[in-house]
Amino acid sequence: MGSRTESESEREIWKAMEVAEGARGDNSSSHVLQSSSLTLDTSLSLPDLTPPLIELCKDLFKKWSRLDDSSFSVETVSGGITNLLLKVSVKEEDGNEVPVTVRLYGPNTDYVINRERELQAIKYLSAAGFGAKLLGVFQNGMVQSFINARTLIPQDMREPKLAAEIAKQLHKFHRVDIPGSKEPQLWNDIFKFYENASILHFDDIEKRKKYETILFKEVYNEVVEIKELTDLLNAPVVFAHNDLLSGNLMLNDDEEKLYIIDFEYGSYSYRGYDIGNHFNEYAGYDCDYSLYPSKDEQYHFFRHYLQPDKPHEVSDKDVEALYVESNTYMLVSHLFWALWALIQAKMSPIDFDYLGYFFLRYDEFKRRKEKACSLARSYLSGQESR
Question: DSSP label at 133?
């Protein structure tokens, strides 16, 4: 995991542009993707970041290049634990105000996110009505159309009407066809994370002490055991979001319109993983797993996911199968984000206790493992005896 050279970074922006351009397809004549080789320093405060951000917008969009800097206003939309989202409002010469969203990738996030995969997917997901339109790419981020909606908070997701809408939207999301390999990437990603996470070195003494308490052989055995069990479930493979937390769901309250956004972790994966991961996110960043949805709440979600138009006609057999599937893959979600957190603990400059987050996720995995695995094994033995 050595440092990356400038020439590597420069090559990557051109590759990113090529991927995004290539993904636009035949109907792209009305929308030309803009590109810039500029980089923004994510460590700057908003006032210091504003002038280079204005420069970027002028470089990307030629119609804005002659506007006075006072025509631009910048505000923070959100700062996640991997990205910074900014809203730039531009007063054009005709007096119209145009908002765009600038997404700045967190430093070193390319160790845990496949940007090429993300850019390829955005075009097709956007055409299917998901997320914002991709308007431009630059060295360490992208510019997208602005979505006029609020970001959900964890409590929102369990509200029955919203839970039903999320389930319906996820059903539609899972039906989008993304060209290319349909091979599930989940286990490839987990084993890659494991490989990188198990050979880290921390200069900080406290971090090193915490890190050295991790029994990586045990973690590896857990990964292998759960993979073998989930493989037996034969879960359908879909193009999954893989990070359906409250921050990646937006709602326009007036129009009652829900948006699924941010496809950084999107890949072909298992249906149950996407849903189990979503249920884990009811706990929020604080990891209050007492908020994990009850069986009744899950069944409500499953019915609207399986048959959005006729949720009450879903058979008990189908609901039970999805319940077992989601609650087994829920364990995999804990392993994925636990290993992800270790890499972030080493690579990310963001002030977040990633090492502590590893233990929160891994401990919850161990706490839930026996019950979830016995549910899956009991279900599978029942299937065999039929």
Answer: P
DSSP for 44-110 reads S-HHHHHHHHHHHHHHH-GGGTTS-GGGEEEEEEEE-SSEEEEEEEEE-TTS-EEEEEEEEEPTTGG
Q: At what angle do helices 6-23 and 115-127 cross, to 10 degrees?
A: 20
Scanning the structure block, which residue is given the tokens 């993300």?
118
C-alpha–C-alpha distance, residues 289 and 50, integer Å: 39
Local structure of residue 5 (DSSP, 8 states): P
9 has pLDDT over 80: no
Q: Measure the CA angle with vertex 198, ends 194 and 199; round to 5°.
A: 130
Whole-number pLDDT of residue 18: 53
- In the three-class reduction of DSSP (H, G, I as helix; E, B as strand; rest coil), residue 257 is classed as strand
Give the closest residue to 41 by CA, choosing from 113, 105, 137: 105
Round to whole Å and give the CA distance between 386 and 382: 7
| Local structure of 214: helix, strand or coil | coil
pTM as predicted: 0.86
Contact 251, 257 (CB under 8 A): yes
Per DSSP, 248 falls in state G
d(Cα 252, Cα 273) in Å, to the nearest integer? 27
Q: Given pLDDT bands bounded at 50, 70 and 90, which one contains residue 383?
A: confident
Report CA-CA distances (Å) from 232 to 25, 68, 97, 371: 37, 62, 54, 17
Confidence of residue 112 (pLDDT cuts 50, 70, 90): confident
**Beta-carbon contacts of residue 200 (< 8 Å; ≥ 6 apart):** 211, 342, 343, 345, 346
User: pLDDT for 142-188, tens place per residue?
Assistant: 999 999 999 999 999 999 999 999 999 999 999 999 998 999 999 99
Three-point CA angle 204, 206, 211, nearest 5° = 90
Note the pLDDT of residue 24. 44
